[in-house]
């Protein structure tokens, strides 16, 4: 029995929730998957999964062994990604998912540049702001903003995004410039969301986070509309720096409250063990890390 192969099958079973799903993932039959699991259980002398009629139930031994397997296989994959040199010609398919605004403004260009470097590689690029089930939707790697709480995913830090308060010069000339977060109480703010309402914005002051209530008469559920509203002089807004770096450089927007800038938000790539090939995935992740350093406001992993 190939123990590493059996461990990988076991991990896939736990994460997919069915033997048939794993069989489809690795291109084999359900009885073969079942044999891998049975051989591993015989080797360990313990039942890992109870096969109920409609679902699989983890045993206590299975729960414990799963965590060890994930760590071992993750270390193996990390070693492969680190030691295997990128090939000059990558071939196959890479499926990438990203948040809508970040994907449109930044990542699409990066993915296209990667594909131009490796023209034999097919890329499927999808955008979604909802959490993506990588196994169910057959995604090799997803870019996510914020912390990653799913223990079943491997994580690679790409960078972090800064959030800045901005407004158009015309608005500030008409309404004045806020000097501290509390001043926003008398300003018209451009809000993220489906309807104009009171919300709270987070800032940092003296090393601690503070929340400031703000109100406004315009809101939108996408960053492109919010940026357009800010450029029109609709009010003060909080935006990712990568979304407004060009208007800031051109003087079309003005940075505000820079002393109180909130803490950066991490941006990570997440992926499943055994997704795309090690060569493709390792090369792509390295490419993304390097590309992120060229975009203002994305910085280094936080």
Features:
D-Maltodextrin-Binding Protein, domain 2; three-stranded antiparallel sheet; 14 strands; alpha/beta; Arc Repressor Mutant, subunit A; five-stranded mixed sheet; 3 domains
Short description:
The chain has 302 residues and is an alpha/beta fold. It has nine helices and 14 strands.
Structure in words:
- The structure is a single chain.
- This protein has 302 residues and is of the alpha/beta class.
- It folds into three domains: 3-83, Arc Repressor Mutant, subunit A, CATH 1.10.10.10; 92-162 and 265-292, 3-Layer(aba) Sandwich (D-Maltodextrin-Binding Protein, domain 2); 163-260, D-Maltodextrin-Binding Protein, domain 2 (3-Layer(aba) Sandwich).
- The protein is built from nine helices and 14 strands.
- The protein has helices at residues 3-16, 19-26, 30-44, 60-83, 100-117, 169-175, 223-231, 241-249, 278-292; strands at residues 49-51, 56-58, 92-98, 121-127, 141-145, 154-161, 163-167, 190-192, 199-205, 208-214, 218-220, 237-240, 254-256, 265-271.
- The chain is elongated and about 75 Å long.
- The two termini are 41 Å apart.
- The mean pLDDT is 85.
Strand portion, in percent? Answer: 15-25%
Radius of gyration: 24 Å
Report the major sheet.
Answer: 5 strands, mixed
**Helix fraction?**
25-40%
At the fourth level of CATH, the homologous superfamily of the largest domain is Periplasmic binding protein-like II
Give the topology string: H per helix, E per strand.
HHHEEHEHEEEEHEEEEHEHEEH
Low-confidence parts: none
Q: What is the averaged pLDDT score?
A: 85
| CATH class (first level) name of the largest domain | Alpha Beta
Widest β-sheet, arrangement of strands: 4-3-5-14-6
Shape: elongated
Number of helices: 9
Head-to-tail CA distance between termini? 41 Å
Assign the structural class, choosing from mainly alpha, mainly beta, alpha/beta, alpha+beta, or little secondary structure: alpha/beta
**Which CATH architecture of the largest domain would you pick?**
3-Layer(aba) Sandwich
CATH fold assignment of the largest domain: D-Maltodextrin-Binding Protein, domain 2
